Amino acid sequence: MIHLNRRQLLTGAAALTGAGLLAGCSPSSTPSGAETLQFWHLLSGGDGVTMSGLLDKVNASQDAFHVRPTVLAWGTPYYTKLAIAGAGGRAPDVAIMHATRVGGYAPGGLLDTWDIDRLASLGVDESTFSAPIWDKGKIGDKRFSVALDAHPFVLMFNTDICDKAGVLDSDGNLPPISSPDEFVEVMQAITGASESHGLSYGYLGDGSQMWRLFYTLYTQHGAEMEFPQEGAPVIDDDAAVASLTFMRSLLDGKIAAPQADYQAAIAEFATGKSGVLLTGVWELRTVQAAGFPFNAAVIPTMYGTPASYADSHTFVLPHQAQPNEHKRELTYQFVADLLKNSFDWATAGHIPAYLPVTQSPEYADLMPQANYAVAADQVRYDPPAWFTGSGSEFHSEFGATAQPVLLSGDDPGAAVKKFRDYVTRQLSKPNPADPKGVWKA
């Protein structure tokens, strides 16, 4: 959500000045005559290190441009500063946004559109992306983002424990699972071979964790949610109640701990005390560092429709009142070059969005990443609305309604009604980026 008062604008402007000074004081190896492209992103930790390596390769591969990154804090601080930059004419040449946040920015003119013909001339077009990832970058008939990846919610499993439980096939994979009962049966077998629980799932105080699993299960029912501005939300109550009820059934103290937060679940699995972890692919390096053999897969299709909750890191063009056309041309080249050379991005766990990378023989040999690459064809993003998306209050509000069901066994039907009421209130409010509703998709 974008809602900036005068104090926030002044504070943000000062922060932007500081960020600009910091970037300007960084050592530069810009070739003589090369244009400097300013690139903002919110990638830190292992993702930040990987992105730095990708940028080094792109910079070294040519002498027409030099990409200078500025890294800002994840979440609200980043998106606030990006909004200020787009509104105030101090925008970078290119930036990273989560795909689910783009819809809240494009209406207010905070982002410029991509020229699909110019992208196509560089080998970036509809044929080089899975359909759901490519389509997510469009609002109406305009393209506002180009995806770097998909990072879905998946299932990781300790192959030693699962082998001891007798549930793995000859290739070290879990057996086909096509119903909630089959999933419970497999988890119960793994529980019998585990030191603590069969399944680690952290959710306490973490609305995003609850939403990721819930929306995976909900969309596996073949259901979608629609949040039309100034309209009534479309939510399948039966699918929502069934999903919450199933989530609660797993937290029985045997299959999974009835009360666990995100870090506790990660620690339980990483120390070899449980057999299965429900998490995002971004935890791949954490699990690899634990040092035990493991595998990964998409969450089994238990309700008939293959679906995996995910978001994507995407490239956007923050609005510039008078863009330098030469630098804009080089920005297109940079994005195309990075996409074509994004194999290393898979080492961070993410699924590169550019199909020639994930369809290569090298990627097929990359384990366990290749085992969940199919998620790119079945991703389900947050329902489009100005208030949804990664790092938004929407996830927190969902968690506030879902946690009493998971923690205390409250009525899931009442929780769904409370969630619907919250969404209805949000839909009655104008998009802060487009308060007069001038822009239409």
From TrEMBL:
It comes from the Bacteria. SUPFAM superfamilies: Periplasmic binding protein-like II. Pfam families: SBP_bac_8. This is Carbohydrate-binding protein. It comes from Tessaracoccus aquimaris.
